[in-house]
């Protein structure tokens, strides 16, 4: 597992935010593969694409978080399946796959960047 890993750092993105989900494996895991609808245990860091400001991090709380993929934003539902335990993946998620247009959620209208470490499936 990735118990020896430390909180990732996200470099400020350059250029215009992508219109569609971008998936990039930083480390390819060799454990169980996540499938749509699975319950996953992850460590993650989230920043706003435009500012690079961190808005959420399980690392800052010092513990992983577990949840069913079905309960997450669409970008996670689409971006985590296929990832294997032990892997670290970056997702760049446009607003329509995150929290929708501006005005509702405080992250509405924003493109988000997440770095996710998959710790466990099931």
Number of DSSP E strands: 6
Instruction: Domain count, please report it.
Output: 1
CATH T-level fold name = Chitinase A, domain 3
Mean pLDDT: 93
Return the CATH class. Answer: Alpha Beta
Order of helices and strands: EEEHEHEE
Tell me about the biggest sheet? 6 strands, antiparallel
Q: Measured on Cα atoms, how large is the radius of gyration? A: 14 Å
- The poorly predicted ranges are none
Number of helical runs? 2
Bin the strand percentage.
Answer: 25-35%
Q: What is the CATH architecture term?
A: Roll
Structural description of this entry:
The protein is 8% helix and 33% strand. It is mainly β. The protein has a single domain, classed as Chitinase A, domain 3 (Roll), CATH 3.10.50. Strands 1, 2, 3, 4, 5 and 6 form a 6-stranded antiparallel sheet that branches. The mean pLDDT is 93.
């Amino acid at each position: 597992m990735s118990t020896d890993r430390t909180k990732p750092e996200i470099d400020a993105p350059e250029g215009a935010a992508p219109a569609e989900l971008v998936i990039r494996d930083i480390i390819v895991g060799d454990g169980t593969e996540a499938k749509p609808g699975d319950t996953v245990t992850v460590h993650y860091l989230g920043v706003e694409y435009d500012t690079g400001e961190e808005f959420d991090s399980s690392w800052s709380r010092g513990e992983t978080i577990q949840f069913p993929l079905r309960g997450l934003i669409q970008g996670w539902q689409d971006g985590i399946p296929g990832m294997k335990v032990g892997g670290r993946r970056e997702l760049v998620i446009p607003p329509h796959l995150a929290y929708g247009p501006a005005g509702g959620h405080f992250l509405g209208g924003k493109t988000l960047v997440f770095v996710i470490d998959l710790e466990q499936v099931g």
